[in-house]
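Table S7 (text form). Paired inputs.
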Amino acid sequence: MNTRVVLACIALGCVGAYPQDLGSLAGIAELKDAASKRISTWDPTGGNRDYIRVGAGETKTLAEIAGSGAIKHLWFTINSTSRYHLRELVLRMYWDGEINPSVESPIGDFFGTGFGQYKSWWSLPLTVQDRALNCYFPMPFSRGARLTITNDGAVDSPNFYYHVDYEQYPGASRTDSLGRFHALWRRENPTAAVPPEIAKDGNKTGAENFVFVDAVGRGQFVGVILNVQGFATGWWGEGDDMFFVDGEPYPPSVHGTGLEDYFNNAWSYQEEFNYPFIGYSRKGNKDWTGMHTMYRFHILDPIYFRKSLKAGIEHGHANRRSDDYSSVAFWYQTEPHKPFEPLLPVKQRYPNSMWRIEPLERMLPN
């Protein structure tokens, strides 16, 4: 049997106390008190115009669901002539009547295809095949859910297709105790390199790290997708991951040994690979310039927090590198959540299409 299939079967068969809710084949025969529903762009006239148009500057509501339930699957595909529509179109999700979104990300990055460019890849919770975007993270709610898409670009998206597959439950009590799904895109372009005389192991505090998430409340961190565009030749790894739980000081209780170690690889990256929980889905240039994407999902080993979580990673050893870092973090937590920082303006989301590669020593501050 193919190694990928074996790993996926292991992943689907060993999840926790609620096997059907988490996708395990072991629970698929359980009969649930739920109604299966879908909101989609099907053409009610019987024709084949199974899409909506999202005009430039326009926000469209994709789904507005009342009552108690859980979104189980999202599928999107987009036809647009705008080169970077994957970073112009912003996906937002709101649970239980909240005002501040719990999910806010350019749509491409949410599905793990960063830099505004499509890239086929797969994992347990997210897959992309050509221009088909799929998400299988469960998203529970007790008093309603709302999903929107906003086009921050200057060009209309004439054909936006989607499915929102969800379960409707007869009462709110089933989901009241569950964490709400959160996802946030962040970018630093470029990261600020720490001067060599300061960037020493004895001076490390984590304060200069690239931050994935800064959450307040009780919850669990379940994964991150990281995009790195290397501006200087040489390996940009060796940055340690750090998870500061409940306001703890440095060193945190969860402290890693290097970037590729956190993403469960070793000795830098050798080639592209996609597994259920880990992967290196986009490989840039051999000298470590160009665009690189990696992911780590904590499906079986969430990072738990009771009061707060601030998590991120060094950009190069001791934050010595200055490159383009962007990420989407995924977690579940109680509401209300800490409001997100303002999303970057659309022009600051675009990838770096032109840059001059400099030797590493010229990228560091004097």
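Next pair, protein 2 of 2.
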Amino acid sequence: MEEEILIKAQDKENKNEILLYLLKNKGNYVSGEELSEKLKVTRTAIWKQINGFKKLGYEIDSVPRLGYCLKNSPDLFIPEEIWKDDNIKFLGSKIYYFDTIGSTNEKAKILALEGAPHGTLVLSEKQTKGKGRLGRKWESPDKQGIWLSIILRPSLTPEEAPKITLMTAVACAKAIREQGVNCAIKWPNDILYKEKKLAGILTEISAEMDKINHVVVGIGINVNTKSFPEELEDIATSLYLIKNEYIERVPLLLTFLKGFELYYSELEKGNFSEVLKEWKNLNCTLGRKVRIIGKNFEVEGEACDIDEFGALLIKKDDGTFERILSGDVSLR
């Protein structure tokens, strides 16, 4: 099988208006005549497209004189499923949607270098080389999670880049909590439930001394994963394992994207203090003993606070403090 199977690369301006109209009127009958007049397409073209949607897994009733009624959608990341939500403003300006990919982050980095616009999303149903921090593998089974990368072109300084990871964690944790799961944020980039990893964030930046060229934010959420490899069983979990029920991924994705836009707009306006407050309310790191392993260092102590740039402040056993910008954290 090919490692990269692209289903759609689509600009928001080129969205499928027929599918979008059905999505926005889900559960209601829409006549073929109404669709034809509103969207300026022939009835034959509508019929052909309806059959195409059915092949994708959309359950659509066709009744003479009543028209078409979208009953159920497949739980897939088809771009129109995102564009149907008018509350999402800049995310999804362009969407690359894959059936299978090596890594959404690796693809997003290439697209960013090629000039992909701010807000571009890279989504895949499956990753074969999904990755976490420090090059670790991230299990990304087919249609069982949210495997997403976002391309950003922020007006921030490179020093402020860690703020993006923190605000992403807040948006992710709050979206998951809307499912009734009281997860918590572990600095800098993990979402945990009872000490097991439920979601992770990987932020990669291209910058000059005083300017960010682009940021790629990768998000992996274990949604309907029913089992993990033996080496991960004790450290990873999913919403399915927590709740013992199937969770629809598209509504969860939309909740996350709306939260992301909200916190990102605050960040761009210089209102990081509110995001920081939310992060502190949701975290499970501060006040605990931690060990942090960085590229060329190892620190142990109590995690006391994070500063206005998102750095972790550690009180070491000798009473001195150290400011940590990044590292692999284990909670004691």
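The radius of gyration is 22 Å.
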